[in-house]
Amino acid sequence: xxxxxxxxxxxxxxxxxxxxxxxxxxxxxxxxxxxxxxxxxxxxxxxxxxxxxxxxxxxxxxxxxxxxxxxxxxxxxxxxxxxxxxxxxxxxxxxxxxxxxxxxxxxxxxxxxxxxxxxxxxxxxxxxxxxxxxxxxxxxxxxxxxxxxxxxxxxxxxxxxxxxxxxxxxxxxxxxxxxxxxxxxxxxxxxxxxxxxxxxxxxxxxxxxxxxxxxxxxxxxxxxxxxxxxxxxxxxxxxxxxxxxxxxxxxxxxxxxxxxxxxxxxxxxxxxxxxxxxxxxxxxxxxxxxxxxxxxxxxxxxxxxxxxxxxxxxxx
Length: 316
Hints:
40% of the residues lie in helices and 19% in strands. It is of the alpha/beta class. A seven-stranded parallel β-sheet has the order 3-2-1-4-5-6-10, sandwiched between helices. It has a three-stranded mixed β-sheet with strand order 7-9-11. A two-stranded parallel sheet has the order 8-12. Strand 5 (116-122), helix 5 and strand 6 (168-173) form a beta-alpha-beta unit.
């Protein structure tokens, strides 16, 4: 039984995590979200009348908002972040404000009231690697303003654990995908381009490699770590399924019965990491393993976007 404060719970991964927590009758959840372009309360419309769920609109950078909420809960799970690499290249300032200053503000409240704190991070903090897989103790080498802001937040969490004895966990997951993901991300962007008969644009040669993880598998791993992991540690969460962006685009086209000729290659973005790969043996030792294959996950995701045009039309 737990009483959770989930920040960024109206976003993609956060909304799936909130729903997963509330599937357990013993859990209570408050969702704190600023409702930027990436937050959408429709992601949780089915929970509107759930008496164990509460939504609060607010900014994690505001102590007057975060302090009383942190005080009233047992555990903070921080999903709130600016997370799109392309946007961070165009303007890094908001990433520093939300990802670094926001995490700092939450940590200060957690320290003041001695609350457990979970930082939801990304494998992108490690940077690119052509061979082998990153482990939790490897050095951080972020390439984009986005990944640098997440790395900075991770280090703040570590500092609060080391200096103040705060009970913290950091999870670093590989690329998530699934229903409700904003169309700026690769897989929904490819799906919506194919559904609308438009070219599927890929950066460079399309051979950048990512490790793809269905969103509910990541959420279950985070819950597994909270319930069974050792506090004060970091846990990589990955599927072990590595695919090039080109292979992902081809899988989307195959699922929709569309021709390969719809793929177009465009100028690469600056600092584009070539390959991400993480060793997830630590979280698997706790009994977790992914349950949704990439083939099944893409089919489920394609079906969701095809059936929910009202959700995504205004986001393009």
